[in-house]
Amino acid sequence: MSQRQNSFLLGMQIKITLLLLYLACFLQVKADDGIKRGLYFRSFEVDKDKRTCLNLTPDKPLVFTKGFSMEFDIKLRREDQNFGYIFRIVANDTLNIDFLAHITSIEAKHFSVVVKNKTIIQYKNTDIGRTIGNIWIKVLLEFDPANNHISLSLNGIKKDATCPVEGLNRFKVYFGGNMHGFFSTTDITPMTVKDIRFFDEKKNLVRNWELAKHLLDCVYDECESDKATVQNPVWEIDHHAKWMKKEAMICPGKYYQIAFDRPGNRIFIARDKTLLIYNTVSGSTDTLKVSEGIPYHVQDNQMIYDSNRKVLVSYDFGKRELATFDFTGNRWTNEDNTVIEPKFAHHSRAYLAEDSLFVFFGGYGFHKYNAVLQEYSTKEAGWKSYSLPIYITPRYLGSMGYLGNQELLYFGGFGNESGHQEEFPRNYYDLYTINVGNNDVKKIWELSNPKEDFTNSNSLVIDKNTRRFYALAYPNKRYASVITLHEYNLDKPEYRTLGDSIPYFFNDVESYCDLFQSSDSSELYAIASYVRGNNSDINIYSMAFPPLSPEEITQHLPSRSNARIWLLLIILLIGLVVAFMVYRKRKNGRIVINSAGIEQIPGKDEEPIIYDSLLTEKKPSSINLLGNFQMINNEGNDITKNFTPTTTQLFLLLLMSTIRNRQGITSQKLKSILWFDKDDDSARNNRNVYINKLRSILKTFGEIKVVNHEGYWSIQSEKSVFCDYERALVLIKMLQAGDRFNKKLLTELVDITLKGTLLPYIQQLEWLESYQTDYVNKLIECLMEYSKHEDVKTDLMLLLKIADAVLLHDNIDEDAIKLKCYALFRLGRKNQALQVFNKFTADYENLLATKHNLIFDELVKSS
User: Fold this and answer.
1) Are 443 and 432 in contact (CB under 8 A)?
2) Could you give the CA distance from residue 566 to residue 551 in angstroms, rounded to a whole number?
3) What angle do CA 689, 693, 699 make, to 5 degrees?
4) How far apart are CA 374 and CA 208, in angstroms?
5) pLDDT of residue 568
6) CA nearest 576: which of 118, 21, 7, 10?
7) 20 to 30 A from 189, CA-CA: which of 164, 377, 464, 514?
8) What are the DSSP calls for 665-689, one per residue?
């Protein structure tokens, strides 16, 4: 081996060793991070068209010639009907292997494995104990065709069976329902499934669908990026990024007082003789009849739950008194029903259980903002007040939470230095700690002003483990707006917005929102209240904790496995050998990319076929829809990662509607596609939020704008912005309208279309299918028409590229395969022509279950 080769190999070894060390440090087995995983299957509680179907093999079957094993976790829930399919495997399109559940009170059997129409394995309800509820069951199916053997294990309890399965090697796998012709079913077990893994006969992991991060209606496995499609999905991880409305109440009257019992997971809502109790665990709301007394009738005061004495507490700052509600007698200790104007409206409050201490800070009343810290100790039965304007400017609408060790965290608000309303009040974004033991106040940090001012929920939630805290935020200078969740860093002035938004109407003292955390820290609860007429709208929402951004629940492609160190070690060690082979190839001959995108080494008697268009990079200021969706700004930076699934779909709707009709799309049409399940107000709020998010993303592009003209939303772009899909349509139109053959335009069209199909990774969207179908029909019609032109028939390279462009969109197009085989054969690539023909034959028969009438010898000789 030469010195140059030795140097090359030594360099590769050093790089690979450093990479392995880095990966060994970085890729550790993840501890339980509290993130929910799994796919929730809608079952008999909805009609058949809305039930959940998971297809693991939409494009091609899994092939195992010597058997396989499949494992996954399942959690069952009890409903009116509890019979259904957990999965159905269709082997070689001829035989079904089913796993079913039938959890009823009268049936002794719980689970069954059925092959064809015969039950071969059965579990009784006494075999594995309790199966319903918050219980995960580990399922392992082993399939051994050589020995006609199938086994099933549930939580380690294994049962075996023998049945004729020899020769089965191609498997289509469905969980829940499926629409596989003769094998279709809509009887779906009420269940949640996660971590579906396939192993080969040597127990090597070959597929792994975690069912966590996902795209709109598909999810990719972590080993080979194999796509699984889902109809009507309910992703468990989405609960970390979406507010779920749990309760909606319209209550007569104004100024309801609200408190949260964290140990008991209850939310209390009180006014006069009414006390509503919402249980966050069961989701039920009870109305308690008050036998005596009422809470203090102070506008915009809130209650506190005293977990030590197990009573509700209402308070009156003017009288410096507390009223309690005793649940044993359902009595308030206050009888005074005088309506009291608030002096400390929208103050912040906290309860320190270990000190039996109620703490209040700030507030607004009689045209003044306050910076008064007020405390009430149940041990001492007395009030204390401290004025803190030299530390914290007077304000209201701030957030407060308890850090522990008598230390409070206080953030934000609206006020001014003097406290007088008329002297230029403003929003604050500063963070303080307040020690109630010694009244020590420390400023931690201050945020720079955001693009739009916001204020906060009354309370904030602190995560001491991650040094983060959370508060609800909303623009206080608008009436119709939305609430969003902000995550802040305790140690430095930075924050980010998580989850989606909650519709909100802010009208100062007539509106109120707050944030709570469940006793086990697994859920956040937001409550939003506002007055409408003579009633109060009170809505309760939940989000799983820790909250995530839409980006964090979105699966990114390619999604190759990077969680299993041993697999990476093998790949990277093999890379050492491959590196040397690459070196040798580069030394002895060129490496080229063939029309299928596969590395090809020229033989002695064959010249390589190089498609320059396949090797060109994306140009700046470009929108690329053919192949992967990609946005490249004028500086050459890829900004695609800034798009979430919703902003992606919104942008594509606006862009493609604009390209099609030059007008764009109406608000009503957007609602019917993106927010069809929401009322008009909620849909409008969501549209405004995501339009703003999209505009924010497009600012980094600089040459594209979202505009609204005469009721139509559209994309406006500079002429310098290149869109491959739009250019392809323009070229098709020019070629079909032209009187004379323009080979330059045809070549440009072919080069563009060889980049890929139209948005292949954004599928299962009904509105997109019409664009894809229209594009494919126009393209194939144009290309096949020009393939007959004399100047094209004699240009074998162009003819070959036309064939590849058509086959890229329709891999069993008979006219295109004729062109390709003919061109390859005439170029001297006879073996390659035969291989292409044989592959076409196999694909044709596999897809259509019939044989074509083409004969290789005839089509390569015809002109």
Assistant:
1) yes
2) 28
3) 145
4) 56
5) 55
6) 10
7) 164
8) EEHHHHHHHHSTTS-HHHHHHHHHH
pLDDT tens profile 606-660: 444 444 443 344 567 889 999 878 888 888 888 888 888 888 889 999 999 999 9
Q: φ and ψ at 79, to 5 degrees? A: -135, -175
- For residue 79, the number of C-alpha atoms closer than 13 Å in the C-beta half-sphere is 17
How far is residue 840's CA from residue 833's CA, in Å, rounded to a whole number? 11
Give the pLDDT confidence of 380-427 residue by residue, as tens digits: 889 999 999 999 999 999 999 999 999 999 999 999 999 999 999 999
**95 vs 115: CA distance, rounded Å:** 7
- Residue 192 confidence class, pLDDT cut points 50, 70, 90: very high
Helix (H, G, I), strand (E, B) or coil at 298: strand
What 3-state DSSP class applies to 734? helix
Collapsing DSSP to helix, strand or coil, 319 comes out as coil
Taking the C-alpha atoms of residue 74 and residue 40, their distance in angstroms, rounded to an integer, is: 10
CB atoms within 10 A of CB 251: 15
CA distance 464 to 486: 16
Angstrom distance (rounded) from CA 132 to CA 672: 37
Q: Which amino acid is at 782?
A: C
CA 72 – CA 56 distance, rounded (Å): 13
CA 285 remoteness from chain centre:
30
**pLDDT tens, position by position, 700-748:** 787 789 999 888 999 988 888 899 999 999 999 998 887 678 888 999 9
pLDDT digits 0-9 by tens, 164-187: 888 899 999 999 999 888 899 999
d(CA 260, CA 268): 6
CA distance 514 to 460: 8
Tokens of 435: 């020690």
Tokens at residue 278, please?
Answer: 């919402």
385: nearest Cα among 344, 419, 331, 426: 344
Which residues, 6+ apart, have CB-to-CB distance to 579 below 8 Å? 8, 9, 12
Residue 589, amino acid: G
The DSSP-derived string for 267-292 is EEEEETTEEEEEETTT--EEEEEP-B
Structure tokens at 8: 């090359």
Radius of gyration of the chain (CA): 33
Give the Cα separation of 836 and 811 in Å (integer): 11
Taking the CA atoms of residue 854, residue 855, residue 860 and residue 863 in that order, the dihedral angle to the nearest 10 degrees is -60
Query: What integer pLDDT is reported at residue 298 of this predicted model?
Result: 86
Instruction: Quote the mean pLDDT of the chain.
Output: 86
Tokens standing for residue 537: 């709208």
Strands (E) in 453-609, as ranges, are: 455-456, 461-463, 468-474, 480-489, 495-505, 511-517, 523-532, 535-544, 592-593, 599-600
The answer to whether the beta carbons of residues 816 and 807 sit under 8 Å apart is: yes
What residue spans of 274-404 are helical by DSSP H? none
Alpha-carbon span 838 to 834, nearest angstrom:
6
Rounded Cα gap, residues 515 and 498, in angstroms: 14
